Automatic annotation (TrEMBL):
Protein name, per record: FAD-dependent urate hydroxylase
Gene Ontology molecular-function annotations: FAD binding; FAD-dependent urate hydroxylase activity
Pfam hit, one: FAD_binding_3
Domain FAD-binding: 5-351
Ligase is among the record's keywords: no
Record has GTP-binding as a keyword: no
Originating species: Calidithermus terrae
Keyword terms, alphabetized: Monooxygenase, Oxidoreductase
Domain of life assignment: Bacteria
Higher taxonomy: Bacteria, Thermotogati, Deinococcota, Deinococci, Thermales
Matching InterPro entries: FAD-bd (IPR002938), FAD-dep_Monooxygenase_BioMet (IPR050493), FAD/NAD-bd_sf (IPR036188)
EC number: 1.14.13.113
């Protein structure tokens, strides 16, 4: 069967980038997104690492992103007393890895990706929530959406995030997301007095919660707090906390932490504070079944403590499009995609979880952490090299997997 029409479920990082790469490779992608066109822009900010920026560069989208975002020159870590306990220097990332990581608001990055999808005339159907699938033997697959509509294609890619419906449908026995013990919150404020702090991301191991902030040269502050919360709160529980009550709780949690933590929280509009339980995905037995495949968070969500989820989703998009372009037969192409990606991404998931565990305050371990921070950071720098250094060579053909277990390269 010649694959032409690819149904993509979800218009996040993986879905939009996959559509752009597939279109370039001569396929007919169509995106089906559960939310309304307006709803997709919601969210806070993220760090897009050099490996993710390189994928966008391949798509010709790095320039608009650099206009919206700004590079962080590194990370400086402080203990609860405000003592500097270590730092990472990212200033030579361009020379070392071929791109500089960018700090971006989600709304900005989606505007760029979705704008390019629209410019290239790729159909995006909003308000289509996938609810069911029907595999038509060798003929392809039918996607069924809430409300009774459907769509048919030769392949369906579930780029529908950590709560993936596609995953639940094709792998009903597979494990679901795992909670990390942290709830993320944060927002934006404007404090011209902090202009002198611009450059690196500042990371503070507070008395009761971890706090991070980065300042644009204009004085706009992007910040987050990782709040320890033993049992995973439900969406309803989090929604029931009024914004002013949540802000007050954060002020209490961070009372006594080094300046300017409290000042940043106090100056932020309570209504703008999001709340997200942080989770990741355990290893799945498979990422594909018949003509259906998972990408991005749907297959391998990572907690944000390695700053890699979006970059890995973008890498997936490029690699899957290459496999479909270069490898004869759908099943070998999807198998090659999984083989090329699984080891790499699952290593990042584990690393990110370890980073997150360090953020949970502990009276004894806190002191050990302070002492060992330079050692941790040297190890983190070494671990970052293959992660940031990864480049998908779009032009290079993807070899078909010759022997089971043989190593493939992109
Ligand atoms: C608080 C927080 C901070 C983060 N910070 C960073 C960071 O600094 N750096 C980084 O690289 N990563 C970060 N991440 C991770 C990053 O956001 C994800 O890894 C990334 O969004 C994954 O992209 P994706 O396209 O796979 O999924 P998503 O971006 O989740 O997109 C999935 C899309 O599918 C749609 N969808 C869902 N279900 C259906 C359905 N049934 N039918 C149709 N459509 C559906 C959704 O509406 C959504 O648009 C963070 C995550 C969180 C929660």
């Amino acid at each position: 069967m010649m694959v032409r029409k690819v149904l993509i479920i979800g218009s996040g990082f993986a879905g939009t980038a996959l559509a752009l790469f597939l279109k370039r490779a001569g396929f007919d992608p169509e995106i089906y997104e559960a939310r309304s066109a307006l709803g997709v822009d919601a969210g806070a900010f993220l760090y897009l690492a050099p490996n993710g920026v390189k994928v966008l560069k391949e798509l010709g989208l790095d320039r608009p992103l650099e206009q919206d975002g700004f590079p962080a020159t590194g990370m400086v870590f402080y203990n609860q007393k405000g003592r500097r306990i270590g730092e990472l220097d990212n200033r030579s990332d361009l020379e070392r890895y071929g791109a500089r990581g960018q700090v971006l608001k989600r709304a900005q990055i989606f505007r760029v990706l979705q704008g390019e999808v629209a410019r290239q005339g790729i159909p995006v159907h909003y308000g289509r929530r996938l609810e069911g699938l029907e595999v038509l033997g060798q003929e392809g697959v039918v996607a069924r959406f809430a409300g009774g509509t459907s769509a048919e294609g030769e392949v369906l890619v579930g780029a529908d995030g950590i709560n993936s419906s596609t995953r639940r449908i094709i792998l009903p026995q597979s494990p679901g997301p795992r909670y990390t013990g942290l709830v993320d919150t944060g927002g934006f404020t404007f404090l011209p007095s902090l202009r002198a702090h611009s450059g690196p991301q500042h990371m503070i191991f507070g008395h009761k919660a971890f706090f991070g902030y980065v300042v644009r040269p204009s004085g706009e502050v992007y910040w987050f707090s990782n709040v320890p919360w033993a049992r995973e709160p439900t969406r309803e529980e989090l929604k029931a906390i009024a914004p002013a009550v949540w802000k007050q709780r954060l002020l209490e949690l961070h009372a006594g932490d080094p300046a300017p933590v409290v000042e940043i929280i106090r100056s932020t509009e309570a209504e703008g504070l999001g709340k997200w339980p942080l989770r990741d995905m355990p290893s799945l037995p498979a990422w594909h079944k018949g003509p259906v495949c998972l990408v991005g968070d749907a297959a391998h969500a990572t907690s944000p403590s390695a700053g890699q989820g979006a970059s890995l989703a973008l890498e997936d998009a490029a690699v899957l499009a290459k496999c479909l372009r270069d490898i004869r037969g759908l099943e070998p192409a999807l198998a090659a995609f999984q083989r090329l990606r699984k080891g790499r991404v699952e290593q990042v998931v584990r690393q990110s979880r370890r980073n997150g565990d360090l953020k949970i305050p502990h009276p004894v371990m806190g002191r050990v952490r302070d002492l060992l921070m330079p050692v941790f950071l040297r190890a983190a720098e070494r671990a970052a090299q293959p992660i940031y250094g990864y480049t998908v060579d779009w032009e290079a053909p993807t070899p078909a997997p010759a022997v089971d277990g043989a190593e493939l390269r992109v």
